[in-house]
């Protein structure tokens, strides 16, 4: 069945949805995106995602094409038109179409595209196996741009080895996963994840999960960690908008938490889903 997608003010069947070949998103990856989860037909963590969208756009000298409220309405309308109960909404804003030139055009109109991806998000998780790879991405990973070839290649390298994903390493320390933030739980029970900087994406799920953990008295430390430390850890996990909290059960061939999901990751996943449902808009 064809989806209804949103393109520049119109809701159209996906076969009819088009953007210009001159679009700078296509030519220069001059675009930012967001992915939000939908649970019970409602948008999870919307304020966080829209705030990050505005920041990403601002860092690239672009403005918001819509107000936060209008953008929420587009998300909701897409959910309604596609009768989606659970899944993801992808949103992309590009600088727009202009004759090809490295300099930003002065008067391009931004391109805005949103589409739904229906999929179950809340089932039990068996955990993922990851490999470590050098982080080859650019230096502004805090901006959520669509230049995703490096993480896409890392994901393919993991798949080629029969694994699920890659943890990216720079100067000896894990930055993050290809499309998620990375964590370990030390043998003392402390949750460790890399501190925020331009080296990683400032995950919306990360912020929510760290808040939940702190509220429940779990100790959290934001600092870099190595693959070796992760391999010795009691648990490891990743977070992302549609992955929620997903256990990591193997790192570079070394089983973590006995090769099965650990209790801290499972508990945080339940808590995140529970609070995410309650605050969804
Ligand atoms: N890090 C990277 C590189 C990502 O691509 C993503 C999500 O796509 C995340 C972290 C997690 O961010 P969020 O929790 O906002 O989905």
Automatic annotation (TrEMBL):
Q: Name one GO molecular function term.
A: branched-chain-amino-acid transaminase activity
Q: Which Gene3D superfamilies match?
A: 3.30.470.10, D-amino Acid Aminotransferase, subunit A, domain 2
List, alphabetically, the CDD domains matched. Answer: D-AAT_like
User: Which reactions are catalysed by this chain?
Assistant: L-valine + 2-oxoglutarate = 3-methyl-2-oxobutanoate + L-glutamate; L-isoleucine + 2-oxoglutarate = (S)-3-methyl-2-oxopentanoate + L-glutamate; L-leucine + 2-oxoglutarate = 4-methyl-2-oxopentanoate + L-glutamate
- Extract the SUPFAM superfamilies matched here: D-aminoacid aminotransferase-like PLP-dependent enzymes
PROSITE patterns, per the entry: AA_TRANSFER_CLASS_4
Report the enzyme's class at the first EC level.
transferase
Keyword check for Transferase: yes
Q: Which family does it belong to?
A: Belongs to the class-IV pyridoxal-phosphate-dependent aminotransferase family.
User: What name does the UniProt record give this protein?
Assistant: branched-chain-amino-acid transaminase
Q: Which organism is it from?
A: Desulfovibrio subterraneus
Taxonomy of origin reads: Bacteria, Pseudomonadati, Thermodesulfobacteriota, Desulfovibrionia, Desulfovibrionales
């Amino acid at each position: 069945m064809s989806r209804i997608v949103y393109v520049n003010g119109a809701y159209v069947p996906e076969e009819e949805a088009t953007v210009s070949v001159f679009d700078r998103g296509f030519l220069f990856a001059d675009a930012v995106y967001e992915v939000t989860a939908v649970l019970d037909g409602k948008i999870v963590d919307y304020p966080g995602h829209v705030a990050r969208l505005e920041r990403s756009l601002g860092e690239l000298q672009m403005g918001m094409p819509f107000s936060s409220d209008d953008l929420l309405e587009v998300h909701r309308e897409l959910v309604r038109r596609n009768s989606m109960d659970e899944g993801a909404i992808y949103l992309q804003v590009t600088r727009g179409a202009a004759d090809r030139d490295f300099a930003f055009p002065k008067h391009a109109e931004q391109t805005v595209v949103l589409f739904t991806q229906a999929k179950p998000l809340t089932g039990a998780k068996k955990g993922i196996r990851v490999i470590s790879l050098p982080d080859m991405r650019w230096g502004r990973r805090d901006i959520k741009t669509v230049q995703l070839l490096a993480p896409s290649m890392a994901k393919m390298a993991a798949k080629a080895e029969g694994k699920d994903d890659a943890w990216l390493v720079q100067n000896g320390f894990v930055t993050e996963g290809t499309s998620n933030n990375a964590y370990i739980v030390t043998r003392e029970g402390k949750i460790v994840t890399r501190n925020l900087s331009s080296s990683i994406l400032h995950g919306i799920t990360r912020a929510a999960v760290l808040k939940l953990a702190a509220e429940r008295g779990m100790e959290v430390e934001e600092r870099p960690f190595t693959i070796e430390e992760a391999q010795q850890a009691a648990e490891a996990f990743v977070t992302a908008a549609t992955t929620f909290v997903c256990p990591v059960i193997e790192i570079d061939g070394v089983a973590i938490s006995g090769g099965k999901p650990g209790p801290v990751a499972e508990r945080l996943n339940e808590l995140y889903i529970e609070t995410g449902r309650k605050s969804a808009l």
